[in-house]
């Protein structure tokens, strides 16, 4: 098997298995060898399913030998953030708490994972994350930090840091993460890969440990746009286990079709004031590529800062309420930084949360009005590139602020109103950086067409 196949995308890997260039078993063994070589430093995986994965790969090779088609992800190694249920494996959610509660291992996979496996994917294991998804760095207090493949002295971002770093390092072709306030977009940006936060209600979250039910999304990471689109299409569809999942299914379409000129709105104000020069330059590079044949204008969302503040309030209140019964009996097992923020959330007055919801409705109306003039909005995914591991603060606009709280400051207002976003890597900086491509609700196909245009331009 070619050594480069590990860094190829999932479509190329599945094609190589189908045409006999390699086998599912051989690709899995190469992946396991790469994990053994790199993961002791990167710390992406918390659980490996070596024997089970070998059995799945062997079954796929046997099916191919019988002339059967296991699906579009035939033999492709995938992995999931460890808050996704995996049948027979304890769900961790980045914590010690769930194990202490004596919860039995799930008997079925999370819906999103089941749909990937149903398309022929081989599940390698589960991946590191911030405890209960409450963070942007994946510096997990229990199992240690996930390190950035571009520079192992730096964070991978979070809370889905293990998922992003595994894809960037070639330790899985496609991974799944969750995004409440930026937990897919932040690590995708800092690791230099593609990540999708879909429209709220688009993909089922059933079997993914919750954080803030009114903000939670699940989505894929990938090394190519076609992989991202394939994973997204495979995971679409209704699910009675997630009441928020609408079941709406929309095809992505031909990614390479000639797209009409786009009306691009580059978000300024809140989305530019604190970004460093490299983050701003990444946005300008992407805007120049996307606006060819269309238009590009600066635009502001005056309520963005208020929306971010309101998102913080609702996050604390919903997250705190979810965890309060467990905090009463097992508070000592939490990461203190997570525990204290959850406890603070339980003490927010109802009037604060009520006002935050009013801000949410007003901001959603403001965003909807902007999309009457623009096809896509463009913003930084993160204000800076990956900070060093252990750095508690970053400098934004000359002010020292908390890294854990502020790496997602550009992502939070967008997930606050459930918009679909692709985090797109933009080459050119010393360390990876990405931008957010933002579309109106249910317009993922538009996002993928724009992402493919960027991908071609930067190749």
TrEMBL record:
<keyword id="KW-0378">Hydrolase</keyword>
<dbReference type="InterPro" id="IPR014087">
    <property type="entry name" value="Carboxybiuret_hydro_AtzE"/>
</dbReference>
<dbReference type="Pfam" id="PF01425">
    <property type="entry name" value="Amidase"/>
</dbReference>
<feature type="domain" description="Amidase">
    <location>
        <begin position="27"/>
        <end position="447"/>
    </location>
</feature>
<protein>
    <submittedName>
        <fullName>AtzE family amidohydrolase</fullName>
    </submittedName>
</protein>
<dbReference type="InterPro" id="IPR023631">
    <property type="entry name" value="Amidase_dom"/>
</dbReference>
<dbReference type="InterPro" id="IPR000120">
    <property type="entry name" value="Amidase"/>
</dbReference>
<dbReference type="GO" id="GO:0016787">
    <property type="term" value="F:hydrolase activity"/>
</dbReference>
<dbReference type="InterPro" id="IPR036928">
    <property type="entry name" value="AS_sf"/>
</dbReference>
């Amino acid at each position: 098997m070619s050594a480069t196949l590990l860094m190829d995308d999932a479509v190329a890997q599945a094609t190589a298995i189908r045409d006999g260039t390699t086998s599912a078993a051989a690709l899995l063994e190469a992946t396991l060898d790469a994990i053994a070589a790199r993961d002791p430093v990167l710390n992406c995986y918390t659980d490996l399913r070596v024997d089970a994965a070998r059995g799945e790969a062997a079954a796929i090779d046997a099916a191919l030998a019988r002339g059967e088609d296991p699906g579009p992800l035939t033999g492709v190694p995938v992995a999931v953030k460890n808050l996704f249920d995996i049948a027979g494996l304890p769900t961790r959610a980045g914590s010690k708490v769930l194990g202490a509660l004596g919860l039995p291992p799930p008997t079925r996979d999370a819906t999103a994972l089941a749909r990937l496996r149903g398309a022929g994917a081989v599940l390698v294991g589960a991946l590191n994350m911030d405890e209960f998804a409450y963070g942007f760095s994946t510096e997990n207090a229990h199992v240690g930090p996930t390190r950035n493949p571009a520079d192992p002295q730096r964070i991978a971002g979070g809370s889905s840091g293990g998922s992003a770093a595994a894809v960037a390092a070639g330790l899985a072709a496609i991974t799944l993460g969750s995004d409440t306030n930026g937990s897919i977009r932040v690590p995708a940006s800092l690791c230099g890969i593609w990540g999708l936060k879909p429209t709220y209600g688009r993909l089922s979250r059933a079997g993914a440990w919750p954080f803030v039910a009114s903000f939670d999304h699940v989505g894929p990471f990938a090394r190519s746009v076609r992989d991202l689109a394939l994973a997204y299409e495979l995971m679409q569809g209704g699910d009675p286990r997630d009441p928020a999942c609408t079941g709406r299914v929309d095809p992505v379409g031909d990614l390479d079709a000639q797209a009409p000129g786009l009306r691009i709105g580059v978000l300024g104000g809140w989305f530019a004031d604190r970004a460093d020069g490299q983050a701003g330059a990444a946005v300008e590079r992407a805007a120049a590529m996307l606006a060819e044949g269309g238009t590009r204008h600066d635009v502001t969302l005056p309520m963005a800062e208020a929306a971010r503040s309101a998102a913080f309030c609702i996050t604390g209140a919903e997250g705190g309420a979810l965890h309060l019964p467990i905090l009463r009996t097992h508070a000592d097992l939490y990461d203190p930084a997570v525990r204290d923020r959850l406890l603070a959330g339980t003490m927010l007055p109802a009037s604060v949360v009520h006002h935050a919801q009013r801000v949410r409705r007003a901001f959603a109306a403001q965003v909807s009005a902007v999309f009457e003039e623009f096809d896509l909005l463009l913003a930084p995914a993160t204000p800076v590139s990956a900070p060093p591991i252990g750095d508690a603060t970053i400098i934004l606009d000359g002010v020292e602020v908390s890294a854990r709280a502020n790496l997602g400051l550009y992502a939070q207002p967008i997930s606050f109103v459930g918009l679909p976003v692709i985090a797109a890597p933009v080459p050119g900086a010393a360390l990876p950086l990405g931008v957010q491509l933002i579309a109106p609700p249910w317009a993922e196909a538009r996002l993928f067409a724009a992402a493919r245009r960027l991908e071609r331009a930067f190749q």
